[in-house]
Amino acid sequence: VHNTSCGNVVRAVLPHVRLDHVSYSSYDSMRTKGLADALDLIKAQHNRTAASPERALFITEFGLPETTTDPNVTRQVVDNVLSIAREKDLARVHYWQTNLCQ
Description:
Layout: H1 7-12, E1 18-19, E2 22-25, H2 34-45, E3 47-48, E4 57-62, H3 71-87, E5 93-95
């Protein structure tokens, strides 16, 4: 799978570092089905330790500035991320709401 949303760190570093867990800050792909491809790529490159649990991949961050984003857009992003997270059986997902002070 060729996926450019994850950049070179996933391909160049992740396979060479043994980790219990891997987290993904999914702002670059949270709005698209490309999120599933990114998660597949990360999972494939994960160099697991013996202590690594079966469900070792999770999304650390996703979210939108809710004070300036249409609620329907926010809902679409949340639905997309949660749907893909369930499909990929992720350990957990962390929603990060951002607000702009005015």
